Fold these 2 entries.
Entry 1:
Amino acid sequence: MSISAKSSIEKLKTYKPNFGKSKLDNLIRLSANEGALGTSLKAIKAVKSFSTNLHRYPPQVSEDLIRAIGKRYSLNKDRIILGNGSDELISIIAQAFLDTKDEAIYTEYGFLQFPQAIAVAGAKGVIAKDNGLTASVDNILSKINKKTKVIFLANANNPTGTFIPKDEVIRLHSSIPPNVLLVYDAAYSEFINHHDYIDGSSLVEKNENVIMLRTFSKLHGLASLRLGWGYCSQYIIDNLMKVRGPFSVNTPAIIAGIAAVEDIDFQKMSVAHNFEWMAWFEKQLKILNLTFEKSLTNFLLIKFPNDIKYSAQSAEDFLAKKGILVRGMAVYNLPNYLRVSIGTEKENITLINELKKFLEKDNDNNI
Ligand SMILES: Cc1ncc(COP(=O)(O)O)c(C=O)c1O
C-alpha cells in the first residue's frame, strides 16, 4: 500500500506559467500579462517602510484595504472579500459551491484556472464552445442542466483578450436559474474603456447569484504580493470565509494594496500607456501581416502561420533565444497562437523588431 492523492487530483496537470529557463540577463518578460510600468512608487515606498511587524499575523480581514477599494471603485465595502490573488478566490468558490455530483460550466478558451479549480473541487467541468475566439452566451446556456451550480466567465477573457458586450452579459445572467452562481472575472476591467463593457458590479448589487472578481496583479502591478478581491453578497462572503485559510492576504500586500489603489496618477499613466501601445502593436502586426484578436486587455493573442518554419512554436523559440518570453498557447488548444503582454516602449519595439527578423528569416516571403 502506498499513499495516493485523490484520483481527480492525480490526473491533473500542474499549472505552469512561462517565466523561461533562459540564462540571459535582462530577459524581456511578456508572458504573464503583468503591469508594463511596474508598480506604483507609493506602493513600493509603503512596503519598504514595513519591517518591524513581520512576527505578527496579518489581520484576518483588512477593513482598511476594503475601505480603500470601496472608495476607489465607488462600491459598497460590505460586499468586498479579499483573496490571496483572485486565483485563490476562484479556488475557494469552486470548493465552497461545488459538490462531486455537481457540474460547472466554463468557456472553451476561458482562463485555465477555471477547469483546474473545478477539477480540484472534484466536480465535473463542462465546456461551452466559443464562437470563434469569443465566449458564446447561447452555448453556455445550452450546457445548463439540473446539475449545474456554477458558471465561470472571464470578461474580458485571458488568453483571447476578447469580450462579450453588456447586453449579452445581462442576457446570460437573466437566463440562468437563480441557484446557479455566475463567477464574472473582470481581471482586466481597469484597462477597458468601451461603451459596451460592464465589469459586473451592477449585476452583483441586484442579484445574489453573481460574484465579480478583480485583481491587483494587472493594473496595480502587485502580482508578486498576491492580492485579489471579489464583490458579492454577504451569503457568498460568509461561505467563502469558511473555506479560506484563517490568514490569507499578507500584511505587505495589504499595505501595498492601499497605497496602490489610492495612487490614481499611476493607474491613469498605466492605462494611457496600454492604450497607446496596444494601438501601436495593432498597426505593427498588420504591417507584419500577422492576424490577432482585437483585445481590450493588456495583452494580445497573435496567430502564426501553420507552417513549421513560421509557426507559433518556432516564433516562441526564436524569441526566447533573443531573451524575449511570450506565452505559447498549446495548453489552451491554440497551438498556432502566442500571447504577448504589452510591455515598456523599449520592450515592445524590441519584440516587434525581432518578430520582423523571425518572419524575414532566409528572406523567404512564403508565409
Ligand atoms: C482572467 C484572469 N483571472 C484571474 C487571474 C489571476 O489573477 P491573480 O494574480 O489575482 O491571481 C488572471 C491572471 O492572469 C486572469 O487572467
Entry 2:
Amino acid sequence: MSEIHPRFLWWNGRQMQWEEATVHVTELGWSTVGAVFEGIRAYWNAETGEAYVFRLREHLERLLRSMRLVRLARRWSIGELSEAILQLLRANECCEDTYIQPVAYRAAGPKTLSGFSEESGLYITTRPMPSHLLSGKVVRAKVSSWRRISDDVMPPRVKNISNYRNGQLAAMEAVLDGYDQAILLNTEGKVAEAPGACIMLVRDGKLITPDITQSILESITRDALLRLAREELGLTIEERPVDRTELYIAEEVFLCGTAAEITVVGEIDHYVIGDGKPGAVTRALERLYHDIVRGIDPRRPDWRTPVGLAQLAMARRTSG
Ligand SMILES: Cc1ncc(COP(=O)(O)O)c(C=O)c1O
C-alpha cells in the first residue's frame, strides 16, 4: 500500500525519518490489543500563517488517563509530549489542517493475555485532515444492531484501540445497509454515540446529549460544544439518558468529535430530522466552533496552542 506520508514522526523520545521507524512483522496482530491513542487536530489560519492545536493539554491528559486505565506506565510528561508534538508539526511543515495521533502501546513482556508488563512505547504521527466545518455536509444514519460496549466490558470512556472493533462492526453494517453513519445504543437501550463521535440533539430549543455514564468516550469536542452552547449562546443543556425515539422526533441532530467536528445528521432510520438540513442551533454552534478553533474568534485562547509556524517562516525570511 503506497500512501503519502510526512517526513518525520516521533517515537520513544526521538523525532526520526518516517522510514526509520519499523518493527518486525511478528509484532502485527495482538500488538494493539493493549494500546491506547489520541486524535488531535491542528487548524490552519491562512491570515496569521499559523496553525493552532485544539485543546492539546486536554487531549494529552486523556491519553495519560487512557494509559493508566489499561496499565501502561507513563514515561513522558504532558510538557514533553506537547513539545514533541509542536516540534513534529514544525518539522513536517504542517501548513494545513492536520490530524495528530499519539499511540501508546505495551512495549515488553510475553505476548500472552496474562503476560504482564507496564513498560510502554509511544509514537506520534501527523497527517493532513481538511476540515469540513461550514461545508453544509449532511449524513444519513441508522441505529445499529450492535450495542455499544459498556463500562463493565471495556472502558468506552477512554481511547482504547480494542474499543474500536465494536465501532467498526457498527460502521461497516451501516455502510453495507446504504447509510453513512451508525448510532449505537448502550446495553440499557439508550442512545450512546457513533463509532467515532458523540451525538447531540435539539428538542424545543434545548441541547440534549447522553451524559458520560452512558457508555461514551469522554469527548473533548463534546465538552467544548457544551461550554460554548451554555456560556456563549445561552442555550439550556441537558446531559441525561436519551431514548432512541427522541432522535426521530428531534428538531436537529449532529455528531461531534475531533475528526467528525460537527456533522449534521439529516435522516435516521428513514425519519427526516427537521427539514433534513443543518438547523439554526447547529449552524450557530458550528460557526462559533469554526471561528474559535481557527483563531478567527479570539475567545478561549487557552484552547489553542500555536505551533510556531509563523515564527519559523519569519525567521526563514530574515535569514534568507
Ligand atoms: C468513540 C468516540 N466517541 C467520541 C469521539 C469524540 O471525542 P473527541 O471529541 O475527544 O475527539 C471519538 C473521537 O473522536 C470517538 O472515537
